[in-house]
């Protein structure tokens, strides 16, 4: 029996229908000599620290660095996953050959290899490598199955990436959390996320600290056309004023008119980053939204595999182009002009050297009903594909030089002589698939003509750089933080980008989820916590986009067989070892607290950290954030009390006086320390104070529950007495946990 293993149930269903495996079983499809089973994401994962050594469970500086000699893989601790793994293993045990049908990329290879290895399958393994899920593509793929060993380097690269992320992510996160984390604040540090956050923080500070510099521009209006001083702006007002006064006394004369014909090429086909950038700019979709939509389009057979980093097609796709265009009947008005003649083949589109695992994202020709957002993304993918087979756009670029009193001025304009591919993007909407400026058509000037003009001498100011949007952040990640506008140069830099096209969206979403960054319309701003984290990390390598780009290059070289996986892992271990030693030696502790998880604010607002000796009076109200705390007769309260806020902190509670120092600790760290002398129902008790969700004070008795000698599920809870002990994944807990009982004993 041949056993196929796909990455998702939906993909397994498509493959099974093509192979004739039409009988549905529990966890797989069967028929025609095939069993088609599936994973759902990562069935297997790397060991957690505690799996290597029990004492590594503790977040303790003395346990760092954690550097396993050999990295192990386990089945994920989930009942559904364990059940599916048993089904897969039982099929492998009966298999004559296993066909790896995972997504045709590094992550897909890693996911399936881990399952095959963990199931201890030793037989023959073949690889299905396809770029779309159409019946034609699946049939062609099964005719051209490759030996699994052809993709060993791809697996080594994926394994190395995963180990690198484990080594740096787990060690650095524990290191900075224990050393610098405040109350309930995990400080997550990662190989890709930290340099990405650093780029956002650096840009924010650059804008915040930007001081505008004045400059002056000399311009003149002649025949309703604006001409600018040919040599550019003035940094000294007096230099420009001399010329401004001079040109007022003379007529304006046209000195030269230069027309140069040029060619504008169609926009490139999409790679994933290009598609995400376009959809964020034009539709406001997040990078993650665009990736999910593109993945759905792929699973609906409408487009090819989307997680790609090339804008080119291999030459063997060219013979299929006519068939794809013919099937795009919804776009027949655009496809007819190119189907009626020989289809153009350009090296700007077809280049085998620029294609690795997959080619650019293109339509398959399969048309289906799509939701509105899916249709928007599909439409631009199709139009980009059609446009590259149209003729080039021909333009005439005009440069006009004029003078007044020997002071030269210049203006430029563009005239479209032949639209070519631009016709594809003219339909209905006025936006194009390019970010080009509107063409300015100039009047007909004649060399030597003269006339009156209206000069102006304007003071302007330099502008701060723009905040990152998801579109510009994705481009910055692609080029490891370097500002690169030229498409050709950007292509060359992709090997040294931060992260992969398929993971960049998830990195950005992770930073949002951890509250290190926040959206302000289209802008992405760091929160105060994000800024404090980057400020706390003194090790520049952790924040270096260029170093992370170098790692990405090494991982790609592993994939090509040009670099050793063991060398990459040894390098990561050395860095982690040095990092732990460096941070443990730091004398300053930041104590970054979750209370600061809010946007950093507008420019000129600096992150404020509370000093240990501060007074509570004058500090920001923790409830409304708008008022400040003042001291009354019997309590501290918000300055907006009685108007829009009811926050108070009484001087005493339950017969116990609460010091200002303890209230400062409560506000900054979430609780007081345990204090003695609270009068509770006539008895003196020890405990601490916390805020409720509504910022009212709540007394919590000191926890004195000792771990019982034996605990088993079903016992009465030893803390609240009314609940029952439940057995979880890693600990025993109380059935009344939703009602507030926090009894918990780890295994």
From TrEMBL:
Reaction equations catalysed: ATP-independent breakage of single-stranded DNA, followed by passage and rejoining
Keyword annotations from UniProtKB, A to Z: DNA-binding, Isomerase, Metal-binding, Topoisomerase
Gene3D superfamilies according to UniProt: 3.40.50.140, Topoisomerase I, domain 2, Topoisomerase I, domain 3, Topoisomerase I, domain 4
E.C. numbers: 5.6.2.1
Residues covered by the Topo IA-type catalytic domain: 151-580
InterPro entries assigned: Topo_IA, Topo_IA_2, Topo_IA_cen, Topo_IA_cen_sub1, Topo_IA_cen_sub2, Topo_IA_cen_sub3, Topo_IA_core_domain, Topo_IA_DNA-bd_dom
SUPFAM superfamilies: Prokaryotic type I DNA topoisomerase
Family: Belongs to the type IA topoisomerase family.
GO terms under cellular component: cytoplasmic replication fork
Protein name, entry field: DNA topoisomerase
GO MF entries: DNA binding; DNA topoisomerase type I (single strand cut, ATP-independent) activity; metal ion binding
A matching Pfam family: Topoisom_bac
The species this protein was found in: Winogradskyella thalassocola
Domain named Toprim: residues: 1-134
Record-level GO BP terms: DNA recombination; DNA repair; DNA topological change
């Amino acid at each position: 029996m041949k056993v196929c293993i796909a990455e998702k149930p939906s993909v397994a269903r498509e493959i099974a229908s093509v192979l004739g495996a039409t009988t549905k079983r529990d966890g797989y499809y069967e028929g025609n000599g095939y069993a088609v089973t599936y994973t759902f994401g990562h069935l297997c994962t790397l060991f957690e620290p505690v799996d290597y050594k029990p004492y590594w469970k503790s977040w303790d500086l003395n346990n760092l660095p954690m550097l396993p000699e050999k990295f192990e893989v386990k089945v994920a601790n989930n009942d559904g996953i364990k059940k599916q793994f048993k089904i897969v293993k039982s099929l492998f045990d009966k298999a004559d050959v296993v066909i790896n049908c995972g997504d045709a990329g590094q992550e897909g290879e890693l996911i399936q290899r881990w399952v095959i290895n963990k199931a201890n399958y030793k037989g023959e393994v073949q690889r299905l490598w396809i770029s779309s899920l159409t019946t034609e593509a699946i049939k062609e793929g099964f005719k051209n199955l490759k030996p699994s060993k052809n993709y060993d380097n791809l697996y080594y690269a994926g394994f190395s990436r995963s180990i690198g992320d484990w080594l740096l992510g787990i060690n650095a996160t524990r290191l900075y959390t224990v050393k610098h984390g405040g109350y309930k604040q995990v400080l997550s540090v990662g190989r890709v996320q930290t340099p990405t956050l650093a780029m956002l923080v650096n840009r924010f500070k650059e804008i915040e600290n930007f001081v505008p510099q004045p400059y002056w521009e000399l311009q003149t209006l002649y025949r309703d056309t604006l001409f600018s001083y040919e040599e550019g702006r003035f940094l000294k007002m007096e230099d420009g004023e001399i010329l401004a006064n001079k040109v007022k006394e003379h007529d304006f004369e046209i000195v030269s008119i230069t027309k140069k014909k040029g060619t504008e090429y169609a926009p490139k086909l999409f790679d994933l980053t290009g598609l995400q950038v376009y959809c964020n700019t034009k539709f406001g979709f997040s990078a993650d939204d665009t990736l999910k939509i593109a993945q759905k389009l792929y699973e609906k057979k409408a487009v090819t595999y989307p997680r790609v980093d090339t804008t080119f097609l291999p030459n063997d796709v060219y013979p299929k182009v006519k068939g794809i265009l013919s099937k795009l009947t919804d776009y027949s008005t655009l496809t007819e002009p190119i189907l009626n003649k020989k289809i153009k083949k350009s090296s700007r589109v077809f280049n085998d050297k620029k294609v690795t695992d997959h080619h650019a994202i293109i339509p398959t020709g399969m048309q289906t009903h799509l939701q509105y957002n899916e249709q928007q993304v599909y439409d631009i993918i199709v139009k980009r594909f059609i446009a590259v087979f149209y003729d080039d756009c021909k333009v005439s670029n005009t440069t006009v030089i004029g003078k007044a009193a020997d002071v030269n001025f210049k203006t430029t304009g563009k005239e479209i002589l032949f639209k070519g591919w631009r016709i594809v993007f003219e339909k209905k909407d006025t936006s194009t698939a390019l970010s080009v400026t509107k063409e300015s058509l100039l009047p007909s000037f004649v060399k030597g003509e003269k006339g009156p003009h209206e000069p102006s001498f304007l003071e302007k100011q330099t502008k701060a750089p723009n905040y990152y949007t998801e579109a510009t952040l994705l481009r910055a990640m692609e080029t490891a933080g370097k500002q690169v506008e030229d498409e050709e140069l950007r292509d060359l830099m992709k090997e040294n980008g931060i992260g992969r096209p398929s993971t960049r969206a998830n990195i950005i979403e992770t930073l949002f989820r951890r509250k290190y960054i926040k959206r302000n319309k289209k802008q992405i701003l760091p929160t105060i916590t994000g800024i404090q984290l980057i400020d706390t990390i003194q090790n520049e390598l952790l924040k270096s986009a260029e170093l992370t780009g170098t790692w990405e290059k090494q991982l790609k070289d592993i994939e090509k067989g040009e670099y050793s996986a063991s060398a990459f892992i040894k390098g990561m271990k050395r860095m982690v070892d040095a990092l732990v030693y460096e941070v443990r030696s730091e004398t300053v502790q930041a104590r970054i607290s979750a209370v600061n998880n809010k946007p950093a604010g507008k420019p000129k607002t600096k992150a404020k950290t509370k000093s240990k000796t501060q007074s509570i009076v004058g500090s920001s109200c923790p409830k409304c954030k708008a008022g400040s705390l003042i001291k009354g007769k019997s309590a501290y309260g918000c300055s907006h009390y009685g108007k829009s806020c009811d926050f108070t902190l009484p001087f005493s509670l339950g017969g116990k006086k609460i010091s200002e120092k303890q209230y400062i600790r409560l506000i900054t760290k979430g609780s007081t320390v345990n204090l003695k002398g609270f009068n509770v129902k006539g008895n003196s008790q020890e405990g601490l104070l916390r805020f409720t969700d509504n910022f009212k004070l709540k007394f919590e008795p000191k926890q004195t529950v000792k771990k019982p000698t034996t605990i088993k599920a079903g016992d009465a809870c030893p803390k609240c007495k009314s609940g029952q002990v439940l057995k979880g994944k890693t600990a025993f807990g109380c059935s009344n946990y939703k009602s507030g009982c926090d009894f918990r004993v780890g295994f």
